[in-house]
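stage 2 :: seqdesign
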């Protein structure tokens, strides 16, 4: 069997995607049967395949060589790039173009999930462009494959196409298998490298974003927030607690309030009386000033006790929106004025603290950014609008590590108090090949990746790794920039390499 398989660089597909001329000629319907019982490829035929990625889709297409007067049926496998799942609905048009003339054929839906089966019957030999245009309800894509040969006969095609050589390292993993699991690939990329300091640390509430709520008067604490527990959400101005006297005469809030009210009313009446006497020159200015001072003091005490006062006690309100981080007192406890009752934490912003070994102190001036892992998920500080705030300039017996602080927006709902693994990035001004760390397979201190060589073929590749930043890892050898590696589903593809029988496949050409 002779079989041609090759990959076209993604940039070539993009560069030519907008250059196709208008299509003329006519299309041909296909009558290629397809049954769910079909297994394997028809190895009696020579087939051609292409695998192309764009920012929207992945196309893996197989077909018989294009021969004048013969109908070639295409098995065009389309995956959506954002989730690597089969495209289940949409219209596909395939065109064969030479100059300003050509033929086309459209199908209004995939014959089975992800697989479209258009067909073309060329009229003349030569070099053509093969164009695939797919349109779904949400997006459309156009893929141009240049330098496609239409042969004068099948004998000529078989003579010119190179024979496929068996590759013992090849792993077959079908599109139908990939579509059923969490699967993803991405190209290895050449990018800036940053030296990394590995440290432990903690997510903290941003300074000034935690408010302590304290008792303003002595009294018995009553909870006014329904089901008040740590973590309960609160809104600014919401009634949280009340402080009541509870029958303790010397400290009874209601008694104090009534006494202050009576004192204020008495001082007010006396001040009005002295004002009238002073106006009639019946009393001295000194007595007027004394009466005024007594009135002002009584008024202040009365207003202080009267603010938010009701028969249920003096109300204590939330000073900001957030959640109850801590409750200091039990309901029914007697508290003095000034004693803390609760802490309200605001979660929209936060602080990341890294505890760095002192040996790295000379390098802290080169901090660029950081990544961190919390609950087995990796976050990039740049994605959270984070930045370096400061770092410590000394250590002590009680503080043997250097604290490094970063600000961040807590759009990921990170829990303050959580311990995290941090990768501080330092400016290095070098470049290297990077892959997502999830692409790496480790076995006895050696590493490998699974490379997608074409649509349904993969190979295990040993690599040497360098710097790891928590999200990506540098590859020193074994992989070139642009090669696609599996980042999700690596275990399933690896297991496929251990199978001796190729799984059932519904491709027929």
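stage 2 :: out
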């Amino acid at each position: 069997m002779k079989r041609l398989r090759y990959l076209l660089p993604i940039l070539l597909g993009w560069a030519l995607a907008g250059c196709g001329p208008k299509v003329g000629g006519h299309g041909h319907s296909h009558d290629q049967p397809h049954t769910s019982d079909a297994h394997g490829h028809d190895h009696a035929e020579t087939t051609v395949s292409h695998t192309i990625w764009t920012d929207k889709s992945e196309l893996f297409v197989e077909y018989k060589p294009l021969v004048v007067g013969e109908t070639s049926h295409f098995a065009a496998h389309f995956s959506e790039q954002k989730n690597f799942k089969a495209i289940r609905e949409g219209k596909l048009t395939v065109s064969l173009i030479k100059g300003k003339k050509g033929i086309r054929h459209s199908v209004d839906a995939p014959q089975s999930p992800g697989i479209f089966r258009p067909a073309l019957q060329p009229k003349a030999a030569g070099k053509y462009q093969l164009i695939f245009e797919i349109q779904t309800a949400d997006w459309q894509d156009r893929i141009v494959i240049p330098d496609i040969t239409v042969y004068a006969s099948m004998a000529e095609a078989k003579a010119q196409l190179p024979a496929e050589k068996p590759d013992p390292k090849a792993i077959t993993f079908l599109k139908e298998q990939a579509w059923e699991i969490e699967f993803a690939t991405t190209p290895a990329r050449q990018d800036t490298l940053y030296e990394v300091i590995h440290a432990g640390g903690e997510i903290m509430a941003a300074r000034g974003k935690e408010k302590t709520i304290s008792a303003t008067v002595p009294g018995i604490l009553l909870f006014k927030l329904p089901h008040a527990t740590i973590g309960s959400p609160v809104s600014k101005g919401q009634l949280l607690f009340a402080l009541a006297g509870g029958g303790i005469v010397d400290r009874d809030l209601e008694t104090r309030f009534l006494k202050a009210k009576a004192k204020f009313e008495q001082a007010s009446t006396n001040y009005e009386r002295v004002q009238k006497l002073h106006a009639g020159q019946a009393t001295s200015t000194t007595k007027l000033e004394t009466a005024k001072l007594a009135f002002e003091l009584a008024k202040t005490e009365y207003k202080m006790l009267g603010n938010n006062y009701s028969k249920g006690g003096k109300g204590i309100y939330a000073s900001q929106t957030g959640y109850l981080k801590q409750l200091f007192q039990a309901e029914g406890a007697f508290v003095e004025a000034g004693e803390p009752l609760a802490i309200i934490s605001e979660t929209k912003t936060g602080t990341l603290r890294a505890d760095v070994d002192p040996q790295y102190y000379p390098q802290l001036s080169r901090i660029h950014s950081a990544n961190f892992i919390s609950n087995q998920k990796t976050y990039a500080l740049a994605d959270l609008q984070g930045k370096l705030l400061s770092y410590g300039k000394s250590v002590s017996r009680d503080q043997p590590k250097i604290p490094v602080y970063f600000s961040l927006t807590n759009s990921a709902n990170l829990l303050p108090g959580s311990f995290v693994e941090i990768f501080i990035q330092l400016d290095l001004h070098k470049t290297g090949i990077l892959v997502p760390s999830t692409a790496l397979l480790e076995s006895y201190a050696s590493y490998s990746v699974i490379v997608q060589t074409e649509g349904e073929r993969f190979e295990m590749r040993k690599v040497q790794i360098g710097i790891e930043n928590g999200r990506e890892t540098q590859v020193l050898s074994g992989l070139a920039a642009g090669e696609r590696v599996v980042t999700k589903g690596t275990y399933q593809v690896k297991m496929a390499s251990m199978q001796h029988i190729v799984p059932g496949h519904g491709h027929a050409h």
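stage 3 :: structure notes
- Residues 1-44, 500-506 have pLDDT under 50 and may be disordered.
- Helices lie at 10-16, 154-160, 175-178, 253-279, 285-306, 490-496.
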